[in-house]
Design goal:
The protein has 367 residues and is of the alpha+beta class. It has ten helices and 21 strands. The chain has a six-stranded mixed beta sheet, with helices on both faces. It has a five-stranded antiparallel beta sheet with strand order 2-1-4-5-6, covered by helices on one side. 37% of the residues are buried.
């Protein structure tokens, strides 16, 4: 039997905050919700699991309404076929791993021995065999994450929700657990929603990414599409790109930028003259010069001033003010050789072939 799709189409008003949604998650699809703090990600999860009623609209699982204020329908949280894995996992510290996973069955009145037998396949499937008698304080963070997932799946839900599922793990365990989690999510037949702040988690775990900002959906697409063509400043920074809005002058192959300056683009594709576009350039594709480059193949050269420097791993991210302003990635050696410091005037250059332009109308400014 095919699992039903989940659709949330409506509005939630909470105090001075409004969340407007129209999101469908198909059966077997994993959708990651990305967005800054306060964007509405957690409110979405609370809406689906029955903890935040809609002001208007509907939440439907297939043809069955879970929340429909106009018709007076509201299925309580305990009666919804929805399971959630919380950021801190919320395991019962006084229960063993087996007892934690068996909690849903025990809550339905299943006997202790029958419940333990029912969860054994889940423990084996998630690599927890041999850990059943241990308590949460006796297992690792990665194992605790899998126990929480096993507990959710053992309740036989139609919808699975995960709230920052890897956030509580250290960096090494996070890398190891991410791929494992992806494999388990791929086997779940129903809709899956994953809330995360981490773009790597979203890219690895999800089939589709929905970006929320200021209580509304600002981008919805595949991980590759979102990474290549961000629609807002927030998304661009998240995937490590400089993003500029402007209007195309096809005759000169240039985008006149709203914030000042212009960028020449080599490949305009089907873009029309005068069209509103967004242009992106990778920080590593921009070159920094301490003197104006007079002999360069780059068609984009402009003056700027170093605003800030930040070490990120083995690179230095240099923020420069200009028309346009930009983030530039350099090696530590290059920063030392150029003697870059805040306030130093510089010149920037970027090849037209390293700039991508595509249709777009707005760049959100919220961080």
């Amino acid at each position: 039997m095919t699992s039903p799709a989940l659709r949330v189409a409506g509005r939630i008003d909470r105090g001075g905050f409004r969340l407007e949604l129209d999101v469908t998650i198909e059966a077997g699809e994993v959708v990651a919700l990305l967005g800054p703090n306060g964007a509405g990600k957690s409110t979405f999860l609370r809406c689906v699991c029955g903890l935040a009623p809609l002001t208007s609209g509907t939440v439907r699982l297939g043809d069955a309404p879970l929340d429909d204020p106009a018709d007076g329908v509201f299925v309580s949280a305990e009666d919804r076929p929805v399971a959630i894995v919380f950021q801190d996992y919320r395991l019962f510290p006084h229960l063993s791993v087996t007892e934690n996973v068996a909690f849903a069955a025990r809550s339905r009145g299943v006997g202790r021995h029958a419940a333990r037998r029912a969860v054994e396949p889940w423990l084996e499937r998630l690599g927890l065999g041999g850990l059943g008698d241990r308590r949460p304080g006796q297992i690792s963070g990665g194992q605790a994450q899998r126990v929480a997932l096993a507990r959710a799946l053992a309740s036989d839900p139609a919808v699975l929700l995960l709230d920052e599922p890897l956030a509580a793990l250290d960096s090494r365990t996070r890398v190891e657990t991410r791929g494992t989690l992806r494999r388990h999510l791929a086997d779940f037949p129903g809709p899956v929603a994953v809330v995360t702040h981490d773009p790597i988690d979203a890219m690895v775990l999800a089939d589709r990414i929905v970006v929320l900002e200021d209580g509304r959906v600002v981008q919805d697409g595949s991980p590759g599409e979102v990474a290549r063509h961000p629609q807002t400043d927030y998304v661009a920074r998240l995937v490590g790109l400089n993003l500029y809005a402007g209007r195309l002058d096809r005759a000169s192959h240039a985008v006149a930028l709203d914030a000042g300056g212009r960028l020449v683009v080599a490949d305009l594709g089907t873009l029309r003259d005068g069209e509103r576009v967004l242009a992106v350039v990778r920080p590593a594709a921009i070159t920094v010069h301490v003197e104006q480059p007079l002999h360069t193949s780059s068609r984009n050269v402009w003056a700027a001033t170093v605003a800030d420097l930040e070490v990120v791993g083995d690179r230095v991210r240099v923020a420069v003010d200009g028309a346009p302003s930009a983030l530039v990635d350099l090696t530590l050696a290059a920063v030392a050789e150029l003697d870059l410091r805040p306030g130093i005037p510089v010149w920037l250059s970027a090849k037209a072939t390293d700039i991508d332009a595509y249709p777009g109308t707005a760049v959100a400014s919220r961080t």
